[in-house]
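Researcher: For the annotation table, I need C-alpha cells for Phage holin family protein. Please keep the output clean. Sequence:
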Amino acid sequence: MNRLDHLEHLDKGLVDELAQVARETVRDELREQSRKRRRTAALYAASGAAALYAGAAVALAVGLALSLALPGWAAALITAALLVVAAVVLRNTARPSAGRVTPERLAEAERAGETPGTSYGVPSVPVVPPTGGAPPVPPVPPAVPPSPGTSATGPEAPHHRA
C-alpha cells in the first residue's frame, strides 16, 4: 500500500508542495543548529589553546622562580615533576575508578536491581574458575636429568635423606 493512497481525494500537487515545504523547514532548522554547534566547538577549541599557552607560561614562571635559588637543571626538573603530579591528579579525578564505591554508585546499583560489587549486572569476581573448577596450575620448567658421569649431589640437585 502506497503511503499516499488514503489521500487520493487531495490534490497531488498540494501534497507534494506541503512535503517540500516541510523538508525545507527541517533542513533550515538543522543548518541553523549545526551552525551554532560549530561556533560553540570553535570557541571551545580556542579556549583550550589559550589555556594551554597559559599553562606553559605558568610553568615557565615557576621554573624561572626556582632557578633563582637552584641551578637551572634542578629548577626544570622540579617544574616537570610538579606538572606530572598535576597531570596524574587531574587524570585520576576525571577517570571514574571501577574499584571505588561511592554512595551514588550504591544507590544507582540498588535502583537497577544489582547487588553491590557487580558492575552492569556482571560479578566483579568470576563465580567459576575458567579451567572448569580446578585452580590454574602455574607452569613449571622441565627438570633436566643429570648427565652420565656427573654426580647427582651437586648444588642444584635435591637433597633427600633416606
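Researcher: And a one-line annotation?
Model: The chain has a mean pLDDT of 76.
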